[in-house]
UniProtKB/TrEMBL annotation:
Gene3D superfamilies, per database record: Phosphorylase Kinase, domain 1, Ribonuclease Inhibitor, Transferase(Phosphotransferase) domain 1
GO MF terms held by the record: ATP binding; protein serine/threonine kinase activity
Signal peptide range in chain numbering: 1-21
Residue spans crossing the bilayer: 529-554
Compartmental location: Membrane
Cellular component GO terms held in the UniProt record: membrane
Record-linked PANTHER family: LEUCINE-RICH REPEAT RECEPTOR PROTEIN KINASE HPCA1, RECEPTOR-LIKE PROTEIN 55
Catalytic activity, reaction form: L-threonyl-[protein] + ATP = O-phospho-L-threonyl-[protein] + ADP + H(+); L-seryl-[protein] + ATP = O-phospho-L-seryl-[protein] + ADP + H(+)
Disordered: annotated span: 812-854
Lineage of origin: Eukaryota, Viridiplantae, Streptophyta, Embryophyta, Tracheophyta
Protein name as catalogued: non-specific serine/threonine protein kinase
Protein kinase domain boundaries: 571-837
Keywords per UniProt: ATP-binding, Glycoprotein, Kinase, Leucine-rich repeat, Membrane, Nucleotide-binding, Repeat, Serine/threonine-protein kinase, Signal, Transferase, Transmembrane, Transmembrane helix
Length: 854
């Protein structure tokens, strides 16, 4: 054999040997791509280390994949576990990445950061997460994960950041017991972000110890019970503590004063009691929230002299006596809200903070005082937005925005959410300019292609989160490319950007970005099939190596895409009628006209259980079903699907067997509803509305709540229905929803037994005060809900809490599920017998339906 051929074969053999790992990685990346849509156009060719957007390599092996905010859709397949050198995986802000988190993720033994913020993943968290020995950053917040927290997370000894907030996780917090690990072993962790889940049970005392180095403990808005553990006072590194919006009981432990580094303390909306604890050891405390906790006694004057204190909110408690802010209260003090307590006097020395609120206290209600602190506060939300930088804004084209530097471009937008801000004055522009300045400095120091940033619409939601709209404008072009977007998104998803002091922990939820530059149609991804022959020097044995690459995978993917389009529930969508692109739905399917015709026996009148009416164009209909498909709650009627076929527009909802609440109240269903059951139904409806107002994205205002739009299932659970008049907030010109209350308000004698309501009560209800426990309190809530002034009405989360309290006061567990069906509840009448006939004439008597009309 010619020596030149031998030498060539040897060089090829060496090349193949060195590149074997790389070739292996391309196979698994191709497999991932088979499950994804909208991968970057640069993902072509046989070398992922050669300018593939979002892919970083070391020694020809893939070590980092950062594809945040590029509109990826599909599922994360188990092939990800084969990228054995992977150290960083960030797929954040891809809302259409769905499915469960594969247990093969546990094979990534070198993974240091796993960031999946703001995706659509669901199902349980795999135990295999505990098999990542190098993991230091785990952010899975704002998905749909369910089930328990895996105890195996306790094996992640290098974990620094643990954020599993804003999911649907349930059960108790796992603690080690000698044979299984638990969260108490995470002594190197600085961040426990578990808020807005469904966690229950007591906070285990063993969770905390003096060995821990936690800075943030965020357990807000769960279902945690029991007392605040004394061991919490041992974690003296704590800076932010949120235990609010749970069901915690008992006194606030006195040793909480040992947490000398705490600057934000949230204990509101629990069932605590006792006196306000001594907090003078918290020398850097600047934000204290303890509203609606059951506190009693007088407020210690020392709390207002804490050097850095800015905000003290203690409203809706049982605090009494004389309020004294002292002669030398902190010069940082901005807001003291003590409304709705039992304070009878106020000691004025050398003035008091401008924002002192004492409304609904005896000092204001039992006297003719005209002091400003007795006035009801106005809404504090700000209309702040970033001003132009000494220039005149341009008139921009469709979808473009004028930047602070007055250049028209397509910004990268989203919502910046701060979980524990330390200030209450949302109108202070200096706060936002400092945030904007620090963000630009951070982008510039990391050499990101950012021209300017804009902030606006600061608001606080029911969880006291500060929400800001964020727009990031591109430099040197009118739009970002994918590389620029992923780098900016990564900076926000992995907390590289650190906000100024006072803003506290944050997260970012990005909007889809549809304006990438260089978005050419993807070229063929095929890889050549070659036969590479290697031989050893001096040997004559021929080694045949066959490199198999992506033609087969490419063809399979193209075939699958064609099948998906063919079988797509939106393949029949007609863009010529102005209906736009295919709807982006979650959980709803498309029905053909023939399918619904068959299911309803040709729309037979015998199958009719109710009717409604609406009329809209294709675009409005598409928007409606997209909105409804995102709404999922046990107290809301679910959208099963829709029909946009044969010139028809139909919505398909789940069937609710017991019809409307009005039917049951009027006796048409034969179901007898006692006082407890009616409270349970009211609670269910309130929880459904709370979800629409505070958890839906965007929030939704129903605008047509009435007994005919509340349905009852087989166990008499309430389900809110009929969203025909609903309005989403925060989308274009739909931001305005009228808050005017309709109807005429009667006078009501609150000084008499049962508020003098005996004459109008349903005869099926017992008329004894003992058996109608909480009626007066229930009426109070109802009256507050229809107060003429919008800012005097309670939030739905407050209504839910109040109804829960009423039920507990009456000896009923508000979370207990009914074990009986409507067929057995109160002995449902058979046939046409009316349950009220024994009490008065059906034809001439006064029925609850008539009362409702009145």
């Amino acid at each position: 054999m010619d020596i030149r051929i031998k030498l060539l074969l040897v060089l090829v053999f060496i090349h193949v040997w060195l590149a074997s790992g790389q070739n292996q990685d391309i196979v698994y990346l191709q497999a991932l791509m088979d499950n994804w849509k909208n991968t970057p156009p640069s993902w072509v060719g046989s070398d992922p280390c050669d300018k593939w957007d979002g892919v970083t390599c070391t020694d020809s092996r893939v070590t980092s994949i950062t594809l945040a905010s590029i509109n990826l859709s599909g599922e994360l397949s188990g092939d990800i576990g084969q990228l054995s050198e992977l150290q960083m995986l960030d797929l954040s802000y891809n809302k259409d990445l769905t499915g469960s988190l594969t247990s093969d993720i546990g094979n990534l033994k070198k993974l240091k950061s796993l960031i999946l913020v703001g995706c659509g993943f669901n199902g349980p968290l795999p135990e295999a997460l505990g098999s990542l020995p190098e993991l230091s950053y785990l952010a899975l917040n704002f998905n749909g994960f369910t089930g328990r927290i895996p105890p195996s997370l306790g094996k992640l000894t290098k974990l620094y950041w643990l954020d599993i907030a804003d999911n649907k996780l349930s059960g108790s917090m796992p603690i080690s017991n000698g044979t299984t690990p638990g969260l108490d072993l995470l002594v190197n962790a600085k961040h426990f972000h578990f808020g807005r889940n469904q966690l229950s049970g007591e906070i285990p005392p063993n969770l905390f110890s003096s060995k821990m180095t936690l800075k943030h403990v965020l357990f807000e808005d769960n279902q945690l019970t029991g007392t605040i553990p004394l061991t919490l006072g041992l974690v003296q590194t704590l800076e932010v503590l949120r235990l609010d919006r749970n069901v915690l009981r008992g006194d606030v432990p006195s040793n909480i004063n040992n947490l000398t580094l705490i600057n934000q303390l949230f204990l509101s909306n629990n069932k605590l009691n006792g006196l306000l604890p001594n907090l003078t050891g918290m020398a850097v405390l600047n934000y204290l929230m303890m509203q609606e906790t059951g506190l009693r006694g007088e407020v210690p004057v020392e709390v207002f002299s804490i050097p850095q204190i800015e905000t003290v909110v203690l409203r809706d408690n049982q605090l009494n006596g004389t309020l004294d802010v002292g002669p030398s209260y902190s010069n940082h003090l901005q807001l003291v809200d003590m409304s709705n307590n039992k304070i009878s006097a106020f000691t004025q020395r050398s003035g008091y903070p401008a924002d002192l609120i004492l409304t609904d206290n005896p000092i204001c209600t039992n006297s003719n005082t005209r002091e400003s602190y007795c006035d009801h506060p106005t809404e504090s939300n700000s209309t702040y937005s970033t001003s132009p930088n000494n220039c005149i804004p341009e008139t921009c084209g469709l979808y473009q925005t004028s930047s602070p530097n007055c250049a028209c471009s397509y910004p990268y937008t989203g919502t910046l959410v701060f979980r524990a801000p330390s200030f209450s004055d949302l109108g202070n522009a200096t706060i936002y300019t400092s945030l904007q300045s620090s963000m630009m400095s951070s982008f510039e120091s990391h050499k990101l292609p950012v021209d300017s940033v804009s902030l606006g619409d600061p608001t606080k939601n029911a969880d006291d989160y500060l929400k800001l709209t964020l727009s990031i404008f591109p430099a040197d072009d009118d739009r970002f490319n994918r590389s620029g977007i992923t780098r900016i998104a990564f900076m926000l998803s992995n907390q590289t950007y650190k906000p100024p002091h006072g803003f506290g922990p944050y997260f970012f939820i990005a909007d889809n970005y549809d304006f990438f530059s260089g978005a050419a149609k993807r070229k063929s991804k095929s890889m050549s099939i070659g036969v590479i022959i290697g031989v050893s020097v001096g040997g004559c044995i021929l080694v045949l190596l066959l490199i198999i690459a992506g033609i087969y995978a490419y063809r399979q993917k193209e075939r699958a895409e064609r099948a998906t389009i063919k079988n797509s529930p939106f393949a029949s969508w007609d863009p010529d009628k102005g209906s736009g692109g295919r709807p982006q739905l979650k959980g709803a399917r498309s029905f053909t006209f023939e399918e619904l015709k068959a299911c309803t026996n040709n729309f037979s009148a015998a199958a009719n259980v109710g009717s409604g009416g609406y009329g809209m164009g294709g675009l409005e209909f598409k928007t409606e079903i997209e909105l409804l498909s995102r709404v999922h709650h046990k107290n809301l009627v679910s959208l099963v699907g829709f029909c946009f076929d044969a010139g028809e527009q139909m919505l398909v909802y789940e069937y609710i067997v017991n019809g409307t609440l009005k039917d049951s109240l009027s006796g048409r269903t034969g179901i007898r509803l006692d006082w407890m059951r009616r409270l349970k139904i009211t609670l269910g409806a309130a929880r459904g509305l709370q979800y629409l107002h505070e958890l839906a994205d965007p929030p939704i205002i129903h605008r047509d709540v009435k007994s005919t739009n509340i349905l009852l299932d087989e166990r008499l659970n309430a389900k809110v229905s009929d969203f025909g008049l609903s309005k989403p907030l925060g989308e274009g010109d739909q931001t305005h929803v009228t808050t005017q209350v309709k109807g005429t308000m009667e006078a009501m004698d609150t000084g008499k037994d049962l508020y003098n309501l005996r004459e109008v009560l349903d005869p099926l209800l017992s008329l004894s005060s003992e058996q109608l426990q909480g009626l007066e309190r229930f009426v109070d809530v109802a009256l507050r809900c229809v107060h003429e002034t919008g800012n005097r009405r309670p939030k739905m989360s407050e209504v839910v809490k109040e109804i829960e309290n009423i039920m507990e006061m009456a000896g009923m567990n508000p979370d207990a599920e009914s074990t009986s069906t409507s067929e057995s509840y109160e002995g449902k009448s058979k046939g046409n017998n009316h349950p009220y006939l024994n009490d008065f004439s059906y034809s001439g008597g006064l029925l609850p339906a008539d009362l409702e009309a009145k």
